[in-house]
Design goal:
By secondary structure, the chain is an alpha+beta fold. It folds into two domains: 3-126, 2-Layer Sandwich (Beta-Lactamase), CATH 3.30.450; 130-306, Beta-Lactamase, CATH 3.30.450.40. It is built from ten helices and twelve strands. The strands form three sheets. The protein has a five-stranded antiparallel β-sheet, sandwiched between helices. The protein starts with 7 loop residues before the first helix and ends with a helix.
Length: 307
């Protein structure tokens, strides 16, 4: 039997079964309502986002947006819907539990037999792993370019720290090894200036200053960098001995992960990068820890060449 010979009811049943059984997320919104409320979603959407149809029916898909969703892409989506044309993009969305994911979105208008726009169909794919890989490759390419400039080692370390924000972490602090017991702070970088200022204030509490360069005294905070540098291996949040006040204030702001990675080459430790992530970003994965070690190793090679 050909598809053309099926009755209308059979075609509707076949369509519903196809949409319901596909692993690709599908949503249908009512274009006749200015707010474009959802009228149907398939099980793949429910599984991908954590939202059930009963929870979100009648709502606009804006509930998937979050603090790091790109405003430019969101504006382009609104424009496409307003102009009633197709649109596709990859954007950062958020599941019901707050977990971010990269969503490959395609929107298509649907018209009835008279050509009147009645619905929009959105097809969504979770491409988080693909996007992470792309961003990691871009990060390494950018850092390779920084290293190839053969600049002053401290300048290189600062530039590498800045390059990791925001794609790899929300904040990054850099310290360099000194003959004294505690490493020397040379910079903290991030896109949220309030977080940067707070972290700098907490990290440098009790430090002395020589010119424009803060030098750590024997205060509790630098111990994460000391630990990572002394054993030449990364230290995670559970291992990082943040002082209670520092930890409490950052946790209140959503701190969810800390990774300290020594800057090392030929078994010589030159310093450490301290990466922070805040909710809703996920903790550092084993792959990302290896990436951070690679990044720190490239910084270490610059220090080694300058010896």
């Amino acid at each position: 039997m050909s598809i053309s010979s099926l009755k209308q009811n059979d075609l509707l049943w076949l369509r519903d079964r196809a949409i319901g059984s596909t692993e690709v997320s599908v949503v249908i919104a009512d274009a006749r309502d200015p707010s474009c409320p959802l009228v149907d979603v398939n099980p793949a959407f429910e599984q991908m986002t954590g939202y059930s149809l009963a929870e979100i029916k009648g709502q606009n898909c804006r509930f998937l947006q979050g603090p790091k969703s790109d405003p430019a892409i969101l504006g382009a989506i609104r424009e496409a819907v307003s102009q009633r044309h197709d649109f596709s993009a990859v954007l950062l969305n958020y599941r019901k539990d707050g977990t971010p994911f990269w969503n490959e979105l395609s929107i298509s208008p649907v018209r009835d037999q008279l050509g009147t726009l009645t619905h929009f169909v959105g097809v969504q794919r979770d491409v988080t792993e693909r996007e992470r890989t792309i961003r990691q490759l871009k990060l390494l390419a950018g850092i390779s370019a920084i290293v190839d400039q053969r600049a002053d080692p401290e300048q290189t370390a600062r530039a590498i720290a800045e390059a990791t924000i925001p794609g790899f972490a929300d904040l990054c602090t850099v310290r360099l090894a000194t003959p004294e017991a505690y490493p020397r702070w040379i910079g903290t970088y991030g896109t949220d200036q309030n977080l940067v200022d707070l972290t700098i204030a907490l990290e440098q509490d009790g430090e002395t200053h020589e010119g424009n360069t803060p030098r750590s005294r024997a205060v509790s905070f630098p111990s994460p960098a000391v630990r990572a540098m002394s054993r030449s291996t990364p230290a995670m949040l559970d291992e990082v001995a943040l002082d209670d006040r520092h930890r409490a204030q950052l946790v209140d702001l959503g701190l969810c992960a800390v990774l300290v990675v020594p800057i090392i080459a030929n078994d010589i430790v030159f310093g450490a990068f301290q990466f922070y992530r805040f909710d809703p970003e996920p903790p550092f994965s084993p792959t990302e820890i290896e990436l951070a070690r690679d990044v720190a190793g490239r910084a270490g090679s610059v220090f080694e060449q300058a010896r």
